[in-house]
């Protein structure tokens, strides 16, 4: 029996891989998400709903941060915060202790539908989260590769000039040796970056559910500057309204409370309702914890991205001066090599900060129960 189950699992997994489509696409992050969701047709209605919500709200957090949006403390609330937690279920559940049996059945069916949608929404948001994270990882690897390609090109130009100066007797041979070492080191970094980029695209293909033979390239770039964050309390409020795990716990609690209100309800049934209330409260605290942590990480990554941008300007100016000094005979090639190394490091630090910043936004949007900000 156990061998049969394992064989069935293997056959199912193999079939799933065989059915993965081969695509030839140039993908933005949102296009990658759409492609990933299309591979799960059973989730398509919920996926379409989540994506429509993103479009309608201006990507969730962006709508909260917009100056034109109603602020906290006003009588108005953004449209996506105005939806009831249980839709029609709460309306039906309150008078049910003395209501007819058919009304109880309608409420139970509604809660069953809500629970199924919550489970599917959790899957959809996880697919969105994973695909966006993998797209950002792949984009970081590609842009790091571009940086190292540029550094190698600049080092080659400097070496050509140094070689001509060596032949003219203006520089010693040791300078050329040092330059060759620098080129070899940068070339190794370039090879590593190219390898990381290839592997990151492989992981992205897996996240999207497409065949590894697919020709997938990336369209877009990492964020070059952060956007304003909405108020923390507004983000927490949104999370408490739409986190699928909390929504599912509330629905389960409502069902248990309905059963506990029955005239013939046992003590065990009433105790179960009390336990589920405690569990729901605990999940609510977990949701708040997730939002607080994710929000703090976005703030931290925002600061990091803001700090790395001026370093690039300084490194570019340092490189420009080093090249000018070398061309006019007032500097040596080692200054150019060091300046190039500093420029490459500053650019890579900025790219990594940009990637970490966008990944922190993805995590924050997962924490609030959406799949929203793509930047």
Please provide a written account of the structure:
The protein has a two-stranded parallel sheet. α6 (101-167) packs antiparallel against α9 and α9 (244-260) runs antiparallel to α10 (267-327). The radius of gyration is 28 Å and the shape is elongated. The protein is built from eleven helices and two strands; from the N terminus they run αβααααααβαααα. Helix content is 74%, strand content 2%. It is mainly alpha-helical and 375 residues long. Residues 6-18 and 62-107 have low confidence and may be disordered.
Condensed summary:
This protein is mainly α. It is built from eleven helices and two strands; from the N terminus they run H-E-H-H-H-H-H-H-E-H-H-H-H. A two-stranded parallel ribbon has the order 1-2.
Strand content: under 5%
Tell me the span between the first and last alpha carbons. 50 Å
Secondary structure tally, helices: 11
Question: What pattern of helices and strands is seen along the backbone?
Answer: HEHHHHHHEHHHH
> Spatial order of the strands in the main sheet?
1-2
Mean pLDDT: 78
Question: What's the number of extended β-strand segments?
Answer: 2
Q: Which regions contain 5 or more consecutive residues with pLDDT less than 50?
A: 6-18, 62-107
Helicity, in percent?
over 70%
- Main sheet specs: 2 strands, parallel
Shape: elongated
The SS-based structural class is: mainly alpha
Radius of gyration: 28 Å
């Amino acid at each position: 029996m156990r061998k049969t189950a394992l064989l069935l699992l293997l056959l199912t997994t193999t079939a799933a891989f065989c059915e993965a489509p081969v695509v030839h696409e140039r993908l933005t992050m949102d296009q990658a998400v759409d492609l990933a969701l299309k591979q799960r047709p059973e989730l398509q209605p919920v996926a379409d709903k989540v994506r429509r919500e993103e479009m309608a709200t201006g990507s969730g957090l962006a709508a909260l941060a917009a100056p034109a949006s109603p602020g906290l403390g006003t009588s108005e609330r953004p449209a996506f915060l105005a939806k009831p937690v249980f839709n029609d279920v709460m309306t039906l559940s309150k008078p049910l202790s003395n209501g007819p049996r058919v009304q109880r059945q309608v409420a139970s069916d509604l809660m069953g539908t809500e629970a199924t949608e919550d489970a599917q929404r959790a899957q959809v948001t996880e697919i969105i989260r994973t695909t966006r994270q993998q797209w950002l990882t792949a984009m970081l690897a590609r842009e790091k590769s571009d940086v190292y390609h540029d550094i190698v090109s600049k080092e080659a130009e400097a070496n050509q000039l140094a070689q001509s100066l060596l032949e003219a007797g203006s520089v010693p041979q040791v300078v050329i040796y040092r330059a060759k070492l620098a080129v070899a080191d940068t070339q190794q970094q370039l090879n590593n970056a190219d390898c990381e980029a290839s592997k990151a695209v492989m992981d992205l293909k897996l996240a999207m559910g497409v065949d590894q033979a697919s020709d997938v390239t990336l369209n877009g770039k990492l964020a070059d500057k952060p956007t304003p964050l909405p108020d923390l309390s507004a983000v927490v409020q949104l999370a408490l309204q739409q986190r699928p795990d909390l929504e599912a716990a509330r629905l389960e609690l409502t069902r248990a409370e309905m059963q506990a209100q029955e005239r013939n309800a046992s003590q065990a049934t009433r105790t179960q309702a009390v336990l589920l209330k405690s569990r729901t409260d605990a999940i609510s605290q977990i949701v708040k914890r997730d939002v607080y942590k994710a929000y703090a990480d976005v703030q931290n990554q925002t600061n990091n991205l803001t700090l790395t941008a001026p370093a690039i300007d300084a490194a570019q100016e340092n490189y420009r001066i080093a090249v000018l000094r070398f061309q006019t005979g007032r500097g040596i090639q080692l200054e150019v090599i060091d300046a190039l190394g500093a420029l490459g490091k500053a650019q890579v630090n900025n790219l990594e900060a940009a990637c970490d910043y966008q990944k922190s936004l993805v995590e924050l949007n997962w924490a609030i129960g959406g799949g929203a900000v793509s930047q």
